[in-house]
Write a structure and sequence with these properties.
The chain is an alpha/beta fold. It has a domain of 159 residues: D-Amino Acid Oxidase, Chain A, domain 2, CATH 3.30.9. It has 13 helices and 21 strands. The strands form 4 sheets. Strands 1, 2, 9, 10, 11, 12, 13, 20 and 21 form a 9-stranded mixed sheet that branches. A hairpin with a 2-residue loop joins strand 10 and strand 11. Helix 3 packs across helix 13. The longest helix is centred in the N-terminal third of the chain and has 19 residues. It is globular, with a radius of gyration of 22 Å. Bound molecules: flavin-adenine dinucleotide and 2-acetamido-2-deoxy-beta-D-glucopyranose. The site of 2-acetamido-2-deoxy-beta-D-glucopyranose has 4 residues, from loops. One of its GO terms (molecular function) is (S)-2-hydroxyglutarate dehydrogenase activity. Its EC number is 1.1.99.2. This is L-2-hydroxyglutarate dehydrogenase, mitochondrial. Belongs to the L2HGDH family. Keywords: FAD, Flavoprotein, Oxidoreductase.
Length: 424
């Protein structure tokens, strides 16, 4: 266990500018120095905590606003291990996805995490889509994705009799994983290397500058019950040597509440909900993942299988707004799946699965993409900011960790830990 340097005392004046509690209150709150803090117990935060604890000997505290781990985006996704085809070459998404996939398969094998490399077909259903398939093939090869193969529609139909398409791109490296087991396993390792997970614990803001970081922490219950008029007083102030903001949907709003952090570097958050429908009363029509050509904001309504053979279709893209800070910290989003959205799913799915029967789709679940680019904007890369960007030693902010964030989690962890080590 490393000893951490004493941080220089942060000036009182800077603290005063934190508007949600007063000078008097600040004096009365207990303050504690700690080694490393990770905000957010999603798959990415957990992977980072594990990496810091197991491979770098750090003493880590993970702060999570919910009553347990993985209740955010990490339990509301397709659970697909992506190959790394779609992303611009040399982008963080491309690099982290390919590296993360390799680390993930290896980890799953070593730790008996349920997973399966079932492969995926990306399908062109009309002539205008065929060139897009060629572009994806070229891009995938550039990104270092192994085994890609373009095939004629009839070859694809031989693999998947229910499938209809003009051409398809086979990606044998794609697969599926049980995210819950993955998170549990990584948490177990982190805990056995001294990591503490603190649930029902919300970071409401903080202060940071070149001299260090102070985190303002409150019980989640107090925020839920807060009337919004009085000042919210933190229960404790943590003074970490290293801080990773891995708060997912809440990460941008939270870093805006870090007094002293240059607001110029904090991206505007956008939220894009995706609903899933499940196939009822029918046997699994497909053995592979089936994806259409990607659409604006997402990868298109695709076919995913879980490890129990349950088929799900989704996610669609619905931009939502009016999200306030505390809702994003406490994961208070509307995750309901309106039954009538099925109407929009049938025609999309029937483009490649004409045998889909009327009335066979039932509402499944929904997830929200933590985006940092809006509708009709160029999709943004993952944003991983260290001291080189914002000037605060020991701080890494993660923004826009949408798909392929699950696949990339262990590579992101490696990258974040290396960055913190080289800078601190
Ligand atoms: C619909 C959908 C489908 C997807 N499909 C795939 C896929 O098939 N493959 C793939 O690789 N990726 C996929 N992804 C992306 C993947 O799910 C995410 O990248 C990944 O789960 C992000 O993990 P995370 O730990 O960053 O975030 P989260 O899991 O959201 O964790 C963040 C945590 O921070 C906590 N928190 C927030 N604010 C605070 C605060 N102020 N104080 C304390 N705690 C706080 C939250 O409660 C939450 O638990 C998909 C995403 C979506 C939305
Ligand atoms: C978190 O809060 C919930 C609901 O208030 C409670 O049931 C649970 O016991 C708390 N968990 C911990 C670890 O404090």
């Amino acid at each position: 266990m490393k000893k951490f340097k004493t941080l220089l005392a942060t000036t009182r004046n800077a603290i005063k500018s934190a508007s949600y509690f007063t000078d008097e209150q600040y004096k009365s709150v207990s303050k504690e120095k700690v080694d490393a803090v990770v905000i957010g117990a999603g798959v990415v935060g957990i992977a980072i905590a594990r990496e810091l604890a197991v491979n770098h000997g750090r003493e880590v505290i993970v702060l999570e606003s919910a009553s347990t781990f993985g209740t955010g985006t990490s339990s509301r996704n397709s659970e697909v291990i992506h190959a790394g085809i779609y992303y611009p070459p040399n982008s963080l998404k491309a690099v982290m996805c390919v590296r993360g996939r390799q680390l993930l398969y290896k980890y799953c094998k070593q730790h008996d995490i349920p997973h399966k490399q079932i492969g995926k077909l990306i399908v062109a259903t009309g002539p205008s889509e065929v060139p897009k398939l060629n572009t994806l093939m070229t891009r995938g090869i550039e990104n270092g994705v192994e085994g890609l193969k373009l095939m004629e529609g009839h070859e694809a139909t031989r693999m998947e009799p229910e499938l209809q398409c003009l051409k398809a791109l086979l990606s044998p490296a794609s697969g599926i994983v049980d995210t819950h087991s993955l998170m549990l396993s990584m948490m177990g390792e982190a805990e056995s290397h001294g990591t503490t997970f603190s649930y029902n614990t919300t970071v409401i803001g903080g202060h940071c500058d070149k001299d260090g970081i102070q985190l303002h922490i409150s019980e989640s219950k107090a925020i839920k019950n807060h009337d919004g008029r009085s000042l919210l007083q933190p229960d404790v102030i943590l003074i970490p040597r290293l801080l990773v903001n891995s708060a997912g949907l809440g990460a941008p709003a939270l870093s805006k509440r870090f007094n002293g952090l240059d607001v110029e570097v904090i991206p505007t958050p956008y939220f894009a909900r995706g609903c899933y429908f499940v196939l009822s009363n029918s046997k699994t029509p497909f053995q592979h993942l089936i994806y259409p050509i990607p659409e604006d904001g997402g990868l298109g309504v695709h076919v995913t299988l879980d490890l129990n053979g349950q088929v799900k279709f989704g996610p669609d893209v619905e931009w939502i707004n009016g999200i306030d800070d505390f809702s994003s910290f406490l994961n208070m989003f509307d995750y309901s799946v309106p039954g009538e959205r099925a109407k929009l799913f049938y025609p999309e799915i029937r483009r490649y699965y004409p045998g889909l029967k009327d009335g066979s789709l039932e509402p499944g679940y929904a997830g929200i993409r933590p985006k940092v680019s809006g509708p009709n904007q160029v999709p943004c890369d993952f944003i991983i900011q260290g001291e080189d960007i914002h000037g605060v030693p020991g701080l890494v902010n993660l923004f826009g960790i949408e798909s392929p964030g699950l696949t990339s989690s262990m590579a992101i962890a490696e990258h974040v830990a290396a960055r913190l080590n080289s800078e601190n």
